[in-house]
Amino acid sequence: MKRLSRVLCGIAVLMMIAGAASVAHAQALLAYKEGVSAEQERRDRAACHEWAVQQTNFDPTATFTAQEAGINTRTIMRVTTALNTASGGTDPRWTAGSFGNTRTSADIRRLNALYASYLKAGALCLEGRGYVVTQ
Predict the structure, then answer these.
(1) Is the separation of the CB atoms in 121 and 51 below 8 Å?
(2) Contacts with 82 (C-beta within 8 Å, 6 or more apart), sequence order
């Protein structure tokens, strides 16, 4: 009986941790503006994405796309560092800090902070265009 209780308790803890992690990463911006076509909303979102990347020097889509393609994080770091050097260190898409080598909890916190800044900038841009934004 004790063993079953421990197993169930362990499963419950793991489920709570997984739930907390998914909530932390599910912070997409929901925006609504009455009378706007889907095409206009797409253009506004794209423009605000570019603006948020410029403001925060963080592009979450680049990291996600590379990782989904199965590219190792270290390889991403090497390539983006080389591209950043080639661009004179001025292109926010290639800053090494944008990708972070998320091996430690401090790195994960830093990456989460960068993502939060990116979301805040995107929300400000969309609100400036008249959208009602929720996270």
Answers:
(1) yes
(2) none
User: Which tops the pLDDT comparison, 23 or 48?
Assistant: 48
For residue 66, the one-letter residue type is: A
Detail the DSSP E strand segments found in 33-102: none
List strand residue ranges (DSSP E) for 7-126, in order. 30-32
Q: φ, ψ for residue 34 (rounded to 5)?
A: -65, 135
Here the tokens at position 69 are 């393609």
Parse the chain into domains and list their residue ranges: 28-134
Query: CA-CA distances (angstroms) from residue 35 to 46, 91, 93, 129?
Result: 18, 35, 33, 13
Structure pTM?
0.57
Residue 121 in tokens? 């900038």
Q: What is the pLDDT of residues 70-91, one digit of tens each?
A: 877 667 667 766 766 776 665 5
Place of tokens 């925060």: 56
What pairs with residue 31 in β-bridges? Answer: 133
